[in-house]
């Protein structure tokens, strides 16, 4: 507050006006500075708003582009949230699986649209007859999954035609060599059988001839089975198979072949309760092919081992190994080719059948061997998706057949 009584002289009044002018100038400068700051902030805000609008526009354009791409994709895309509900899908998925999809539980869609049974966990048949390839991925940090469905029906038809053509060509080769392959063991069996009625044979000779006949007939049976499986084009009725039960079945089938040979068979597992999809008869036949090959390679002494183990949580590996003479790299490179054999009385179908059966089950087979260091055949098969209740009875942990 200004004391007016103190301004009684011109000098003091002049000083008061000077102070007032200074304050007025300071206030004016401050106001101008404030205006400048407000203007600068307005410009920055406008720039930020413009940049944000540009970013939102770009994101909207990108979202629209991605949406158009999603709608244009020939394969089905289904996004499933953390609750198992379809949050998004494209027209291709709707065309494959039918409506409704959005807002539906994925389990209900699977039950509604997919045919029962699953020979291959990566391929499923729909109830409308189409065959789709399935793959699923997580959404990164976000909960849920994205499922990709590819219609492979036409590709499967073309592949079947190609396979059929190859098999017809191979069957022509097989028919050409069939007479010789069957005649040799059959003639030997008939010769031994004709001698059984001779009164000059003692009991020891009769048993020896009977054993020879049985060997020739088993050889014939193996050849016929190989040819039947090869001609079947690898199509089998599949079921859920428990590893322990499968190994017991394999042991029962292999035991007569090893009896009295001097070769020891060992079968072991650390995953008896795991379950895989397959045809037990076809797979045990494939393993038996490998076992009899190993038995012949050992020549009456040594050991053959079968081991079942998990290569990873989704893959079962069945390993057949021996300590025989091994296989050369040249032979190993062609070992799974139909009609390729290094044995005078072989058909060349045994390992081709093994390869075909394993592939028909969605698996793969590999041979590792070096001359003089034995051979190992490793069959990898996909496990079943759902666990099987534990089977009763004893498990197949380790079993040895010493002959």
TrEMBL record:
EC number: 2.7.13.3
One term of GO molecular function: phosphorelay sensor kinase activity
Coiled coil: 24-58
Keyword Isomerase: no
Superkingdom, natural source: Bacteria
Keywords recorded for this protein, A-Z: Coiled coil, Phosphoprotein
Record-linked InterPro entries: HATPase_C_sf, HATPase_dom, His_kinase_dom, HisK_dim/P_dom, HisK_dim/P_sf, PAS, PAS-like_dom_sf, Sig_transdc_His_kin-like_C
Histidine kinase domain span: 177-385
Transmembrane feature ranges: none
CDD domains named among the record's database cross-references: HisKA, PAS
Reactions the enzyme catalyzes: ATP + protein L-histidine = ADP + protein N-phospho-L-histidine
Pfam families for this protein: HATPase_c (PF02518), HisKA (PF00512), PAS_8 (PF13188)
Protein name per the record: histidine kinase
């Amino acid at each position: 507050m200004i004391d007016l009584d103190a301004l009684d002289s011109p000098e003091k009044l002049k000083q008061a006006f000077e102070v007032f002018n200074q304050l007025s100038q300071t206030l004016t400068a401050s106001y101008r500075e404030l205006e400048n700051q407000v203007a600068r902030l307005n410009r920055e805000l406008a720039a930020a708003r413009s940049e944000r609008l540009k970013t939102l526009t770009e994101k909207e354009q990108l979202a629209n582009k991605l949406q158009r791409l999603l709608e244009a994709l020939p394969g089905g895309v289904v996004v499933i949230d953390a609750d198992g509900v379809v949050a998004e899908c494209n027209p291709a998925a709707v065309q494959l699986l039918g409506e409704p999809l959005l807002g539906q539980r994925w389990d209900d869609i699977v039950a509604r649209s997919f045919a029962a049974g699953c020979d291959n966990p990566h391929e499923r048949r729909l109830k409308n007859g189409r065959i789709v390839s399935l793959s699923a991925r997580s959404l990164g940090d976000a909960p849920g999954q994205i499922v990709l469905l590819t219609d492979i029906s036409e590709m499967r038809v073309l592949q079947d035609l190609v396979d059929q053509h190859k098999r017809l060509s191979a069957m022509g080769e097989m028919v050409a060599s069939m007479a010789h392959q069957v005649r040799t063991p059959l003639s030997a069996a008939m010769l031994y059988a004709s001698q059984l009625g001779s009164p000059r044979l003692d009991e020891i000779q009769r048993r020896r001839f009977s054993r020879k006949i049985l060997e020739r007939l088993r050889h014939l049976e193996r050849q016929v089975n190989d040819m039947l499986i090869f001609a079947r084009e690898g199509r089998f009725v599949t079921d859920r198979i428990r590893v322990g039960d499968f190994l017991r079945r394999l042991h029962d089938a292999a035991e007569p072949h090893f009896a009295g040979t001097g070769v020891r068979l060992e079968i072991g597992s650390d995953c008896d309760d795991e379950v895989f999809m397959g045809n037990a008869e076809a797979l045990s036949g494939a393993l038996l092919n490998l076992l009899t090959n190993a038995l012949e390679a050992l020549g009456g002494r040594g050991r053959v081992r079968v081991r079942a183990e998990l290569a990873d949580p989704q893959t079962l590996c069945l390993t057949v190994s021996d300590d025989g003479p091994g296989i050369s790299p040249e032979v190993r490179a062609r070992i799974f080719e139909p009609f390729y054999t290094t044995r005078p009385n072989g058909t060349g179908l045994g390992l081709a059948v093994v390869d075909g059966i394993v592939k028909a089950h969605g698996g793969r087979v590999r041979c590792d061997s070096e001359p003089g260091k034995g051979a190992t055949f490793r069959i990898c098969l996909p496990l079943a998706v759902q666990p099987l209740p534990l089977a009763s009875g004893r498990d197949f942990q380790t079993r040895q057949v010493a002959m």
